[in-house]
Structure prediction request, 598 residues.
Amino acid sequence: MRNKTKNQCGRKGERIFSNVCVLPSLIGVMIFFLVPFCIVVYYSLISNPVTKEFVGLENYTKLFSNAAFTKAAKNTAFFSLVAVPLSVILSLGLAMLLERNIPGKSVFRTFFLSPLMVPTASVVLVWQVLFHNHGTINQIIEHFGGQGIDWIKSPHGQVVIICMFLWKNLGYNMILFMSALCAIPRDIIEVAELEGAGSFYQFVHIKLRYLSPTILFVLILSLINSFKIFREVYLLTGNYPQEKLYMLQHFMNNTFNSLDYQKLSAAAVLFALLMIVIMAILLAAENIFGKDVEN
Amino acid sequence: MKRRTGVLSIKNRKKFLDIATLIFIILLAAVFLMPTILTFANSFMTSNEISANYGTMFSNMTENKKTFISSNVNLKFIPDKVTFDQYKAVLIQNSDYLIKFWNSVLLTVPITVFQMLVAILTSYGFSRYPNRFKGIIFFAYIILMIMPYQVTLVPNFLVAEKFNILNTRSAIILPAVFSPFSIFLLTKVMRRIPVSYVEAAKLDGAGELKILTKIYIPLCKGAIVSIAMLVFIDYWNMVEQPLVLMKENTLHPLSVFLSQINTGDIGLAFAVGSVYMIPTVLMFLYGEDYLVEGITYSGGIKG
Prediction:
């Protein structure tokens, strides 16, 4: 990255070519995402598509007093705040376990990646079997004398989704961490061992330092995937799930179906703003933590 | 003597830890593999056996027609009787499933191919001669990439309406082609290509186009294949887009159909699921190494 800057003084034609390469995608994104999104912003500021009266932030203030929206926002925030860090930690742990002296590593790798192969709808069916009121998990619990609960309909419903999310994404994240662990220079670890550093010290002061870009990367991928899990939730519970599983995506989907574009637009704009803030924070974090590793 | 036993016990402890780890990993791997095996194994059951075991889940729909052996939902791996009845019903007796399968292919393959073409070109543009303007666009792409589908749902719908492509495949394919996910990943890979390669090529008189086709693409082959696999898998399972953008369900991909079959004709769900799994399984058989080795992103956001 750093030494690339030396190469900036290319001939003008070459620089133009590299700009032209970006153009097709930029035009596509403009047409299909950016321009219509500007219309969405406009929609969020008017009273309705017919009279087109400018109402300022009224749609937004209405949104905040909307019980369905606040509930959905809370649920989505809770899910992402729990599931994303959990998937980073667990997949890193798994990658480190597989670093140990274990036979058949590549077979296990395939097994952990296998969730990517199964069609989402089939998976949902299996999860239904597992977490049904009379399903496998409850049977096991009752076998040991416990009291089963109707997982999907209970206040613990989010547990089911978090399990589903982890099951689906751990494998790929683990692979990312495995290749990052391989890339840590051996000699640094060896020197640390010679100096008598314990494995915990090694982990915190050496491995985490080298892994920090990958952690950030997995964090972003997990964030994206945490929003994608809606597909499974939707297939599991339909348009109107129980209170704890009512996600922001449900809210948007349902307002779309009821053609309430004003409410939906305001929600979409808010969501986009929040993502910009989160990404800016992550970028700042990268600038702070990434520097001393890169050189 | 004493010292030797000490060394031995440390060795033993290490060995014990290794075995414990192995057992733990085997158990965990079994959990991860379970749904795949279950789907496949249950596809050889008779419809009756499936509804006997899983029917209670949908009892509100079928309760008048059938009586269930038990009120429990039983997880069953080994069928009482192995039949290909489900497959016969899915593949031969009813052409509906194959048509939907074909619909899935017609949506997913163009999306994957064109998205990768756009991604290769764009990532090349981003990784060569970076400037402020490109940096801003790249940041915008990252934001766009994170958005759940529901946020882009209205924009997609508006554009489809404007261009009069609502209820056609293009309504899904066109926006998906410009989805920035693959650009993000590929740019990060391309930025790691050493400048010296490019300089050497330039000295030999290679133009920018040649650098792209003769250096960047071959060097990123693994990454391109692995990203294409991820994109394919994602769109192979799409559910929301067709439901919103195509009212006509003759065009719906099998993934949508599969998600509706769950609540209806559960006896066939596993066979349909297994058939639908074929492309992704084949991809894994041939491309898993790419998936594993192709992804040596440096990590981070900017790469």
Summary: Confidence is low (pLDDT under 50) at residues 60-70 of chain B.
